[in-house]
Amino acid sequence: MAAEDPHAPENEIDSLTPLPLDHRRGLWGVSVLASLSFVSSTVLLVYLTVKLVRWHLKQWRLGRQQSTDAQAPSSIDLTLGLAERHFFPPCRRNNSRGRENAESTPRKKAYPNQFLVLVYNLLLADIHQASAFLLNAVWLGRDGIIVHTPACWAQGWLVSTGDLSSSCFITAIAVHTYLAVVRNYTPPQRAVYATVIGLWVFNYLVAGLGVIITRNGADGGGLYVRAAAWCWINIHYETHRLALHYLWIFVSLFLTSALYISVFLSLRAKSHTESRLTRSQPKPLPSNQQQKAFLLYPLIYIICTLPLALGRIATMAGAHVPISYFCTAGALIASNGWLDVLLWGVTRHRLIFTEGGIDSEESGIGSFGVPELGMGGWRGSGIIRTPVGRRFGNLVWVHAAAGKGEEGKGGGGRGGGGIRVIVRRR
Question: What is the pLDDT of residues 211-270, one digit of tens each?
């Protein structure tokens, strides 16, 4: 009597034990790459979380200090020889309350960089996705894929939410990059926050609809059961697979590719225009190699995501797809996390790893590429500083040798205690 084919549609939803050799070899590769994605995404997420918490605490202390300084009486410090007229705008010089008005002027509220907010949420999505494929280690440990277990249901849920959320935030970053680079437009901070919340709500709503509509697969033997090499949506619910998952994946693939190609073509056109001009643009455009690097984003996304999507569509069409293909495709999509960390960490290094990246307002060309010396402005030791309320730029104090008897009597004595240089910079 011939053995039943475990990959036949009528048997695919059942438990599979023990694991065939192809399953075991393939799931080992998927699990290793998923663990790499999980660890790298989690480490970067924790790093950014610490930076964001420290930044928010710093902003809170600055706001509190400003409030305290505004209420406390103070006098103008002229020990460095700076005349009072340089401290405030002309309209406030003759105002008897000029000092109080300048000190009580609220600071411009700072926000985290918009791109950084989107990458932070992409890392959360990548952790969802990596966790789903990391659960394959459970099947290796049990030597079988066991349906109707918490691990199987959790894996199916995480595959659905992880794949979709990762695609959503990759597309959101593509839209933001397109607006910043091509349209030279920065959306309001509230719009970015609303987009993040909306994408997470959409992600969980779509996954939850499958559970609600099918009553958790009550009529088909369960919603999340074995689907080839791991647990996912029951093959009996092909319409739900397409409408609640792969439709949005393909939309994301198309939009992300189209947007980054538009960015690339726009930069190429600007480069050709720049080459004909004698004057350089205020913001230098990326080199040809950097422009081509923009195509890496959709290329890596397509390579990692499309093979599994095509395999599932082929299965829905009745084609036989070998388990080795699904394991290879699973290894690719499980690599999304560590590849995102590598790609964004290299190409947006300035925003992610530098101290000034948290509240940087730059999200377009200026934030792209590995940082170089001098990019983003002069990096000094903190000697040059512009106090709040001062109209002109910075004060540079160059101290020379004090004259005889002048030491200890206050800087800038008559005998040549120092040189005062006022740098006026708006």
Answer: 999 999 999 899 999 998 999 999 999 999 999 999 999 999 999 999 999 999 988 888
How far apart CA 132 and CA 160 sit, in angstroms, is 9
Q: How far apart are CA 5 and CA 25, in angstroms?
A: 19
Tokens 């791109």 map to which residue? 115
Structure token digits, residue 171: 């597309």
Do 116 and 41 form a contact (C-beta atoms < 8 A)? no
CB 394 within 8 A of CB 386: yes
Check: pTM over 0.90? Answer yes or no: no
Residue entry with tokens 């230098």 = 284
Write the burial class of residue 28 (CB in 10 Å: 0-12 exposed, 13-18 middle, 19+ buried). middle
Q: How many CA atoms lie within 13 A of 188 on its CB side?
A: 3
Q: 150 phi and psi, to 5 degrees?
A: -55, -35
Task: Please report where in the chains the tokens 């438990």 appear, as a residue.
Answer: 15
CB atoms within 10 A of CB 84: 11
What are φ and ψ of residue 245, in 5° steps?
Answer: -140, -70
Helix, strand, coil share (%) of the chain residues, nearest 5:
60, 5, 35
- List all residues 6 or more positions away from 371 whose beta carbon is below 8 Å from its beta carbon: 349, 350, 354
Using alpha carbons, select from 338, 345, 250, 343 the residue that is nearest to residue 296: 343
Measure Cα distances from 221 to 5, 99, 112, 224, 234 in Å: 19, 75, 47, 9, 8
Residue 4 DSSP class: P
Number of H helices, E strands in the chain: 14, 4
Other residues' Cβ atoms within 10 Å of the Cβ of residue 332: 19
